[in-house]
Design brief:
Blueprint lengths: L2 H4 L3 H16 L19 H16 L20 H11 L7 H14 L2 H13 L4 E4 L15 E5 L2 E8 L10 E7 L9 E7 L8 E6 L8 E12 L3 E2 L5 H15 L20 H9 L2 E2 L2 E2 L4 H23 L11 H25 L17 H14 L4 H12 L7
Parallel strand pairs: 1-4
Antiparallel strand pairs: 2-3, 3-7, 4-5, 5-8, 6-7, 9-10
Helix pairs in contact: 2-4, 5-6, 5-7, 7-10, 8-9, 8-10, 9-10, 10-11, 10-12
């Protein structure tokens, strides 16, 4: 029994047993196509269909949205999403495709939308039937989010949106977007308002989505152009001019506070997926050669791999601390730490894997001689997106230094 399971309440213990039984009896079949390394790299309908079917099955079984009220499509439980996530991780199930919806849109909609909108949007978000994306970054407003210029002009009970969002993951499949808009040009922060916007139904009628091709050849990122898109005022979250405060709810979850609310896993143990972890790194070393011997016995590589193991354990313990209310002296400290360190740790593991594989790391996907089917070079290239997304590592360090530690602002 895991340490987490030993601390379960009676409700959690019963739910854990249910999750274990359901997952044992309903393990999804291996995917018919190669899956990407995360939901943010989904690029084909075949990939999406497989992953949506899995999320819908898990939701119907009660493993998604567990802690949300029944009235909005949730399970009405108490701190049980963490239990479901742990069991899905242990069962090595596929990841869910609606990662932005579950991790960012759901809490934002729940805390700030009108009841009728919550009841309409959240059930299909939890089930994965509606994919969500996030409209924050713009060509001239990335790290300085409050400088967004995509504008919403009020016309009666409608808003007309014009502007340009970029780095919009999953926009090519999304039904809905959470979006930060400028509604008053005379105030930087108080001039921002927050909306949910239906974009798929508006393609070619005020919305244009253009894929951005990454170095891996994948197209998970997009740019989204708004030209006179009209939306109803009922899609506004919270009060007019309160967009910055609503955005903080989104960022709190994007930067790690919602980590255990979003079901994640190491992926199916099949030819389709790959896990970036110290365990998979060690397995690679056991199967690789170094100077005619097993790379796992190289003392320099062994030391570097153990450093990765130690860092992973530190991140796991940091997640445990995030569940202890008395340790949350600053609401952003642990989330910011986690986002910063987890993204850089994944990058360092992938980088070390290329060193372990040596010349084999130059072989790409599905090359018959490529270690782990060429997934490590892709993991390394993908890792840079994660050290940029949700605020670059440099921005995270500035926020931690200035707002958490109270250090003077950098010039």
């Amino acid at each position: 029994m895991s340490e987490s399971a030993r601390k379960d309440t009676p409700e959690q213990a019963d739910f854990r047993a249910y999750c274990q039984q359901w997952l044992a009896e309903n393990r999804p079949a291996d995917p018919p196509v190669r899956l990407p390394q995360s939901a943010l790299e989904i690029m084909t309908n075949e990939q999406l269909d497989y992953l949506q079917a899995w999320q819908k099955a898990a939701y119907d079984a009660g493993l998604v949205g567990c802690d949300y009220p029944v009235a909005v499509g949730g399970g009405g439980r108490t701190d049980c999403q963490r239990v479901a996530n742990e069991e899905m991780l242990a069962a090595r199930t596929p990841f869910f495709p609606n990662v932005i919806g579950l991790g960012m849109a759901a809490p934002t909609v729940f805390y700030h939308a009108q009841d009728a909108l919550k009841e309409r949007l959240l059930p299909r978000l939890f089930s994965g039937e509606d994919i969500w994306c996030q409209g924050f970054s713009e060509p001239g407003a990335g790290s300085d989010l409050a400088s967004v210029q995509t504008f919403a002009e009020r016309r009666g009970d409608k808003w007309v949106i014009n502007g340009h969002k970029v780095w919009t993951s999953l926009a090519h499949f999304a039904e809905w977007m959470i979006i930060l808009l400028r509604t008053d040009r005379s105030h930087k922060y108080d001039g921002l308002s927050y909306f949910v916007v239906p974009i798929r139904s508006a393609l070619g009628k005020g919305v244009t989505v253009r894929p951005l091709i990454k170095i891996t050849g994948e197209t998970g990122f997009n740019e989204v152009i708004f030209e006179d898109l009209e939306v109803d005022d009922s899609y506004r979250l919270d009060e007019l001019g309160k967009g910055w405060q609503v955005a903080m709810t989104t960022l709190l979850h994007e930067r790690g506070a919602g980590e255990l609310q979003t079901p994640r896993s190491g992926g199916l143990k099949s030819e389709a997926t790959h896990t970036i972890s110290s365990a998979s790194l060690i397995n690679l070393a056991k199967e690789s050669q170094r100077d005619g011997a097993c790379a796992a016995y190289d003392p320099v590589l062994r030391d570097k791999m153990m450093q990765m193991v130690i860092r992973e354990q530190g991140l796991a313990q940091n997640n445990r601390r995030a569940r202890v209310q008395a340790l949350l002296d600053h609401p952003m400290r642990l989330p910011l730490q986690y986002k910063l360190l987890a993204s850089e740790n994944a990058q360092d593991i992938a980088s070390l894997a290329l060193e372990v594989a040596g010349a084999g790391s130059t072989l790409y996907l599905n090359h018959e001689g490529a270690p782990d089917r060429g997934q490590w070079p892709m993991a390394y290239m993908n890792s840079y997106g994660m050290t940029i997304a949700a605020g670059t590592s440099e921005v995270q360090r500035n926020i931690l230094g200035e707002r958490v530690l109270g250090m003077p602002k950098s010039k």
